Amino acid sequence: MRNGTDPVWRSPLIMRLHSVMLLLGMGMLLLTAGPAMAEQETRESIETTRASLEKWVETRKLISQERKDLAMGREVMNERLELVRREIEGLREKIAEANKSITDADKRRAELVDQNDQLKATSVELLGHVVKLEARTLAILPKLPEPIRERVKPLSQRIPAADAKDVKMSTGERFANVVGILNEVNKFNREITLTSEVRPMADGSTSEVAAVYLGVGQGYYVSANGSLAGYGRPSESGWTWTADNSIAPQVSQLMAIMKTNRWRRLSNFPLKFRNQVSEET
After folding, report:
1. pTM higher than 0.70 for the full model?
2. Bigger pLDDT: 182 or 33?
3. Sorting pLDDT into bands at 50, 70 and 90, what band is 231?
4. How many other C-beta atoms are found inside a 10 Å radius of the C-beta of residue 179?
5. Secondary structure of residue 210 in the 3-state scheme
6. What are the strands of the beta sheet with 192-200, ordered from one edge?
7. Fewer CB within 10 A of the end CB, N or C, for the chain?
8. pLDDT at residue 240, as a whole number
């Protein structure tokens, strides 16, 4: 075998043939490898295209889903915004109503305060009237006959003293108490009252007598035996009895008539006695 250092191999013809053979070999190699490479490239291109298509389809799906989600989210957001708007409007209406209620309450409170002030002023004025009525009633009581004084005693004892500081009765109760006393006095004043009493006599002794009261203005008494008599009248110092045995017959007759209800017999009284009764009335 000859190597490249042989003169024959170094000839131009041989070198040219060698180059041609080398080129032909390389061409055959390329021709043999070309279809395989093209098929590989095609396969890779198809795979790449398929992957790209899949990614594109997936991307389109994602975009479509995002659009749906966005549309749904926008709808939900609009509904929530509408709900919030309604709530805000409702709150505004409630605030307006509350402000109106507060204004009305303030007006009502001012009216009540004014009424309370008026009631306080009226109460003070009424209390002044009640105190005066109580004082006048207490001044009248000693001038009344004993039967009516005893009758109204439960009420008169409730009248506070003029200098009382802590009075537990209200103004209304005190007024009602005075009215109750005056009603009883007025009732007694319209009646003729017969009673049995023990009275002190002029000689210092005591005697049981029958007494008759013609209202609150005058009264008469006569002893059981008809020998002692007298009359009573209100005075500045109180109810005063005066002994007057001279009227004993007339008073005895009056007592008998009153007990038998023979009122017509009163016209048969002596003129002097009837005049006396008339004057005392």
Report:
1. no
2. 182
3. very high
4. 13
5. strand
6. 192-200, 206-214, 218-223, 229-235, 238-243
7. N
8. 93
